[in-house]
Amino acid sequence: MSPEDLFESDDTAAYMEQVRREIADEVRRRRAAGDFPPSFERRLDEIFARFTPAGTDDGQFAETLKLADRSAYFDVKVPIGSRRTVKGAARYVLWHAEAWFVNYVVTQLNRFSSGVMQVLHLLDERLSVLEKDMAVVLPPLFGDAEVLSPAADPTPYLEILCEEIASRGPAGLRVLHAECGSGALVTALCDAGVDAYGIDPGSIDADEAARAGLDVRRDEVLGHLESVPVEALGSLVLSGCVDRMPVVDRRRLVRQAESVVAPGGAVVIVGTMPSAWEETAGPVAADLAPGRPFYPETWVHLLAGVGLAEIGVQLDPPSGEPRSFAVVARKPAARSSKAAVAGAADRR
Amino acid sequence: MSDEGARRAGRDSRAGGARQAELAQYPDRIDQIVPSFAAHDAIGAHVRHMRDAIRRLGVESDVWAIDSLPEVRREARQLDTLPGGAIPGTWLVFHHSIGTPAAEVFAGRSEVKILDYHNLTPGHMLASWAPQVQAEVDLGRKQLDELAPECFFALADSAYNEAELHEAGCHRTRVLPPLFDLGILDRATDADLARRLAAERQTGGSDWLFVGKVAPHKAQHELVKALAVYRRIFDPDARLHLVGTGMGEDYPRALERFARRLGVADALRMAGVVPPETLATYYRAADVFVSASEHEGFGVPLVEAMHAGTPVVARAFAAVPETVGTGGLLLDDPSPIALAVAVHRVVTDAVLRDALAGAGRRRAAFFSLERGVERVEQFVAEVAALLAADGSRGRRG
Predict the structure, then answer these.
(1) Quick one: pLDDT at residue B117?
(2) Segments forming the whole domain that contains residue A129
(3) Number of C-alpha atoms within 13 angstroms, CB side, residue B127?
(4) CATH fold of B3-180+368-390, please?
(5) Strand (E) positions, B153-267?
(6) Could you tell me if A269 and A300 are in contact, meaning their C-beta atoms sit under 8 angstroms apart?
(7) Alpha-carbon gap, residue A116 to B37, rounded angstroms
(8) pLDDT tens digits for range B338-365
(9) Nearest CB to A23: which of B228, B257, B342?
């Protein structure tokens, strides 16, 4: 259809609808390819939230303090303006009658809010000193700094993981490997008849993975797990991210893992031994990393802490100085998050 | 033509049996009340065009305001000098868009009352950014609920606004889109700006434009997100021009910081308020007019962009779909990704761009000043007929 036809015809609405559909299709295709995972959009929202008046990042604390300073003063003046004489007079009398009381209350409120603001300013000073001491470095959103250090290789554990997941996991549910790297474990699981997919925040070639018949997406683990419904996964394998997350995120990760895996499903941690990691990461990455690898015993402790059971540890190599490990835990059939949620709702 | 001449011409041109009868039902005066009167804001322009259209009908019309900007001070009368008691044969039109003491004055009048509702931004959209404005719009909402059932008739910029009037209890309503002169955009150019924008284009990159108050409900932060996505995937040199005054300081400052954090600060151009010739130049130079706005009672800049032949891509919120109609590309998916993909399609698809430019111009013609004046005449005739059927309130004395 030529532009001239479009100017003159009544088909403009139909043409626009067709264009809209094509745009929606492209958005879907790019999302499926992992160009824009849900966590990406969430992250944009989170970054903007830091700059809102209630935000507390990038110097916003000082702005928020100023806002609080401005709001911390209560005006004793009662609004009595009115264009209707009778109403205005009535309000004026009311104001006189109540002025002394309002003044008394507001003076105390002002004293209180001024005290609170002083405390906040002191806190601001102390926080500023702490931040300087910690020298927190935030990685840019789209920078090369997001390219992450190599993950522990799950290859030595392929056989045992396929056995744990394919033979013992609940049937009919998808299995996720995060971070899946080149997709070796996803391939092995698919070969074993498991409906597996992978995510990785690094530079995955999604098209190449798709050509190989793999469902591999670009996404980061915490954001992705937030978008997975409760008990929707047959099993979950975690590697890479588990070595470098801050401790608080690792605890969150374990809680999320327990939540998204169905009863009877496995939660697997493939991690690097701390000693091996420091050798391979190098002194700069090791020193500046927000976190360092945990020993397998620590993972066992955390996994048990959220109620997972049948926890076993596999070392590689099995004897001598191990360089990596796999911790396999299982969600007991009796411990269902859905049931727990329903129970909590009943209690409320 | 002088005002008196226009009035006479209006009366003469309508001489005829049925028309004479209609004219006999018209009031002596239709005065307008507006809290703040300015020449170049959307409501100010609407009020002036409406006054002129009423005068052409042979009906006296004045504007009463609490505050008037210097350029229109001679055209307005101070609201506090409005004579007490009912003025016979007079209708009063009150323009409502924010909480104001003028609403209280209007509520206390006993002439035929007509509400012209230009929409109120929901308070929650402004809460954390501008609590003082939130308080004003919340007051405006309360005043709307009080005024609407008391008014004989109400006008709304859009069907979206009209639904709010019905909800507030006024059921004699008519949609009257804002009156504005699109011709002003055809008559002038800012040569310096045109040269500067052309020089920038030489270095590559497409130009996005949005015109409107820099405020959270207009969601310019969503445009910044979409620009970041677009520059990352499609065009690393794309630029976003934001024209319009800031609502306070916090939101514009947050936008700049956000852009810096996403690495697109060099591509974000905040022009502030600009005169009509500069605005016209921006429209002509832009590759695409992009709206992420989450609340519009109408959207004059959408129409201006369509009139200028600038392809419009807009998220389908509030009254945006009925304003744009088939004159632009409306997106149901509010994500910045959808916005970026749609802009890329428009910028790279010449057939679509031309189709949008043509469809936009046709749609903009629907909101021409001439048609707006006709709508004013229809509204006056309708109210006069309703009053006649209702018992002659407000007719000529």
Answers:
(1) 97
(2) 72-134
(3) 5
(4) Rossmann fold (3.40.50)
(5) 153-156, 173-175, 207-211, 239-243
(6) no
(7) 42
(8) 999 999 999 999 999 999 999 999 999 9
(9) B342
Closest CA to B269 of B191, B208, B312, B194: B208
Query: Does B351 sit within 8 Å of A2, measured CB to CB?
Result: yes
Average pLDDT, chain A: 76
pLDDT of residue A56: 41
Given a contact cutoff of 8 angstroms between Cβ atoms, the answer to whether A219 and A37 are in contact is: yes
DSSP state of A142: T
- Adjacent-strand bridge partners of B156: B117, B175
CA B83 → CA A240, A255, B35, B77, B96, distances in Å?
79, 71, 17, 11, 21
- At the topology level, CATH places domain B184-365 in Rossmann fold (3.40.50)
A190 and A330 share one domain: yes
pLDDT at residue B20, as a whole number: 67
Residue A318: inside a domain: yes
A262 in Cβ contact with A149 (< 8 Å): no
Last residue of a domain, one of A101, A134, A167: A134
Confidence at residue A284, expressed as pLDDT on a 0 to 100 scale: 73
Give the Cα separation of A344 and A339 in Å (integer): 8
Which regions in chain B score pLDDT beneath 50? Answer: 1-12, 14-15, 393, 395-397
User: Would you say B306 and B363 are in contact if contact means Cβ atoms under 8 Å apart?
Assistant: yes
Residue A30 located in a structural domain = no
pLDDT recorded at residue B6? 47
Residue A146 has what DSSP assignment?
G
Q: CA–CA distance from A2 to each of A9, B116, B307, B308, B361 (Å)? A: 11, 42, 21, 21, 17
- For B154, list phi and psi in degrees, rounded to 5: -140, 145
Those residues with Cβ within 8 angstroms of residue B329's Cβ, 6 or more apart along the chain or in another chain:
A16, A19, A20, A23, B311, B312, B313, B314, B342, B346, B352, B356
- Which residue type does B203 have? T
Which of B351, B353, B361, B362 best probes binding to A when mutated, by most A CB atoms within 10 angstroms? B351
Closest CA to B117 of B133, B142, B134, B97: B97
C-alpha B336/C-alpha B328 separation (Å) is 18
Contacts of B80 in chain A (CB under 8 A): 83
**Is A85 found in the same domain as A116?**
yes
Q: What percent of chain A has pLDDT over 70?
A: 70
Q: Which amino acid is at B321?
A: P
Q: Position of tokens 């798709």? A: A210
Contact residues on chain B for A19, CB-CB shorter than 8 A: 329, 345, 352
Give the whole-angstrom CA distance, residue B114 versus residue B321. 27
Residue A255 CA to residue A307 CA, distance in Å, equals 10
CATH 3.40.50.2000 residue ranges for chain B: 3-180+368-390, 184-365
Lowest-confidence region among A95-104, A166-175, A236-245: A95-104
Rounded CA gap, B247 and B127, in Å? 12
Determine the residue of chain B that is closest to A60 in CA distance.
B254
Query: Which pLDDT score is estimated for A97?
Result: 65
Give me the interface pTM, i.e. the ipTM. Answer: 0.85
Residue of B253, B268, B335 to mutate, interface with A, max A Cβ within 10 Å? B335
Tokens standing for B228?
């970041």
